[in-house]
Amino acid sequence: MPNTDDLQKLLDILPLEIRQALEYHPLRNSLVEVVMDLGRLPEARFPNQAEYLSDTPISQEQLNECIQRVGEFGGDNRAGIEKTLHRISAIRNRTGKIIGLTCRVGRAVYGTIGMIRDLVETGRSILMLGRPGVGKTTALREIARVLADELNKRVVIIDTSNEIAGDGDVAHPAIGRARRMQVARPELQHQVMIEAVENHMPEVIVIDEIGTELEAMAARTIAERGVQLVGTAHGNQIENLIKNPTLSDLVGGIQAVTLGDDEARRRRSQKTVLERKAPPTFEIAVEMLERQRWVVHESVADTVDSLLRGHQPSPQMRTVDDAGKVTVTRQQPVSIRGITDEKQDLKTSSMNTSLTPALQPNGWRASGQMLPLPRYSKEPESGISEFERLLDQSLDQPDRFGYGAQTAGPNGEDLPLHIYPYGVSRHQLEQVIQVLNLPVLLTKDIDSADGILALRSHVKNHSKLRHIAKVRQVPIHMIKASTIPQITRTLRRMLDMDEPLTTDERELSLFTQGGSEDEINALEEARLAVEQIVIPKGQPVELLPRSPKVRKMQHELVEHYRLKSNSFGEEPNRRLRIYPA
């Protein structure tokens, strides 16, 4: 990655003693900035260290000497050196007198966007995030040059502090054929953004440091006019923008929505939830963790929706080595149980709150949750051998909850989980346990049960069951109907297992009755419609006509995703329509 920095021009404005110390410094080519504060020792900062350049504190005369060589400071207290990318920033006292300078080295580094070149070429708007000094402006400058010179786009740079294209009227050659518009005062940046679109017909607008609500609104206006935006914003991660009311519009804006009772119950959330207000201004976001390690969110809309629903997204992690080879990996999504989920769990498991054991318990009852077992690669063995294997594994587990070593009780209450079904189809339960390979055993003895899985209507009319469960300190988990989706969700919740974002072939087989090819094809059609269109794009989908028996399976699969579906049309053309959440 060649770079040009014109470092000598920056050194020439420094006091003689400091300039001489840097001219022969072994780390001169990696200098980041020089800091000079009145009455303090001058300091040179490098990527991994900092050191003093003199034993004599900086005097006002030395500061004045530098200021005279630099020239006028703008409204943002920044100045530059003509035809260079260096930036000199001033610190003033209460009367406006300059008492400190930060002289930052500006470098045009070529090849910095190799990690995201494929994204730049798509024509979609890109937002760069990262801490100060990680290289956002350097990457922005390189993106502008590639778009203008190599992709032949009409590029206009809104250069508020002359940091992208350098100081002076002639832009630095590092931006290639891209054009630069300067901004008289920082507070006018949003006006210049709109002016650039209206007057100069750009295909791409490049903007550094979007920091105010007016600038965010101007960015949305530009994006809605079909112009590609490439910019940076104040924030380290997308979560920072979501929590920032000033800039949240860049990722679509956040609004509170009141759900109906049915929808809140379906989502297992409170009635008031946060949702994305509009399509995001920037379709792609890049979190610059380090200079050689970036996190790429290919769809900002999907990332924001996942975060608001309590799930961690699965972005790309892109790294580059010294040879320039880019490696792309995918972060595994992790479901995070939010406050709303916990409250809803207390509602659906109504007996849990009143079943605090009087004696000191052990195992999962001590904490109120079980940790999920790892999935087994081999098929589960049957009968006693499988139970003994699970039991031996539970004995070797570390103490998770701080109540001493785990031991399996006489009824095996730690592992596997013993469930007493009441009013729920035993056949369906066994099918879910077998297909998903869950560490669960069904029992006919309520005394040996670790939990009761019951139909809500049965529990309401059976006070004796509620009394027995309370005396024996066994929680009741209720479901509204004995269906595969509800049984699956409740068993996963009892084991504190996160629900997968996608449905695999094993889980798909739960919804078939005969396992015929027609049934499998119909369920696969419904699954692809939900996972590729309804959920990511928020659009309803109509499926192909099916028989009543197969449509019922498709309805159950859609319910598994917590979506709604209706059948419409006349036989034999009656078919399913799936609606977004």
Automatic annotation (TrEMBL):
Q: How is this protein named in the record?
A: Single-stranded DNA-binding protein
MF terms from GO for this chain are: ATP binding; DNA binding
Q: Which parts of this chain are annotated as the region Disordered?
A: 345-367
InterPro entries the UniProt entry points to: AAA+_ATPase, P-loop_NTPase, PTPase_dom, R3H_AAA, R3H_dom, R3H_dom_sf, Spore_III_AA_AAA+_ATPase
> Where would I find the R3H domain in this sequence?
517-581
Enumerate the UniProt keywords alphabetically: ATP-binding, DNA-binding, Nucleotide-binding
Q: Where on the tree of life does the source sit, at the highest rank?
A: Bacteria
> Which source organism?
Gloeocapsopsis dulcis AAB1 = 1H9
Keyword 4Fe-4S attached: no
Q: Where is the composition biased (Polar residues)?
A: 347-359
